[in-house]
Amino acid sequence: MKKVLVTGGAGYIGSIACRVLKQEGYEPIVFDNLEFGHSQSVGEFEIIEGDLRSYDSIKNALVTVRPDAVMHFAAYLSVPESVEHPIKYYENNVIGSLNLFHAMIELQINKIVFSSTCATYGQPTHLPVTENETFKPESPYGQTKLVVEQMLDWFYRAYGLNSIRLRYFNVAGAWPDGSIGEDHNPEVHIIPLALFTSMGKRKSFTIFGNDYSTIDGTNVRDYIHVVDLAYAHVSALNYLEDHSVTDYFNVGVGAGYSNLQIIQMIKQVTTIDFSVEIAARRPGDAPEIYADNTKIKNILKWEPKYSLRDIVESAWKWHTTHPDGYKDM
């Protein structure tokens, strides 16, 4: 059984990826500083507490585990916070990644799947968004992810560090039985916030702008189930088993859902009506963004399996059985 060190493996996506790795015959070992991750989400998997900002910390973990490959999820991810505190984001996302790659190269561990983002593209000029879209990140968060991607390109050429970078769009949902899921503080994503409104934890839900040139006037985004996303990472890892490569793929369902369609689905699944308010547009919100997933389907042979209903149903199971997130476990 091949070992995979999962940085950020106690976080939302990383913890789901660990379960998919196990299902696919890998042995995941978590590396996390638990700043935003949750030890309860790790379950039966081994966890090494450490911080990527310390070179010795990650090198010692790699020496101990001697993994065959790494999945790298550990990063700060708030766009507004990155604008206010860019040093924090460069320190964690860029320097932390550099420490990881440096230690991998030194120890001759040469396979990594990097969790990147569509924020590297900024406001797209064409829809659907292909991998050929120009890079114009509009936040330090997006810029730091792009810098890490560029580092991986150079490190492949100089040191033979093989990598696949996955640029995903809007991830949502939970493990299908609702046992692990999304627990962010603060929470800023539309589906959990709308579910909180269904649960009575919020008085109303706010949509920012209903006068866009979209199907119903509200923003349209590409939502992918977190389990589909985890399988995309495993597909990338499988590809690295047989290929020496530095490459990148968009991960999305290839279609968009509007904010109103999201709200409608949540009301259907929960059978609860709730108040929805319309506010002014937020600066910088693009009318419509969704992925062209042709490349990942053709090369990595990955296909999304879960629908928007599946996303909402799994998230509803998670939030109703864990109303305070992992705090009640």
Describe the structure.
This protein is of the alpha/beta class and 329 residues long. It folds into 2 domains: 199 residues, Rossmann fold (3-Layer(aba) Sandwich), CATH 3.40.50.720; 107 residues, UDP-galactose 4-epimerase, domain 1 (Alpha-Beta Complex). The protein has 11 helices and 14 strands. The strands form 4 sheets. It has a 7-stranded parallel beta sheet with strand order 3-2-1-4-5-6-11, with helices on both faces. The protein has a 3-stranded mixed beta sheet with strand order 12-9-14. Helix 2 links the parallel strand 2 and strand 3. The protein is globular and about 55 Å long. The two termini are 30 Å apart. The model has no long low-confidence stretch (mean pLDDT 96).
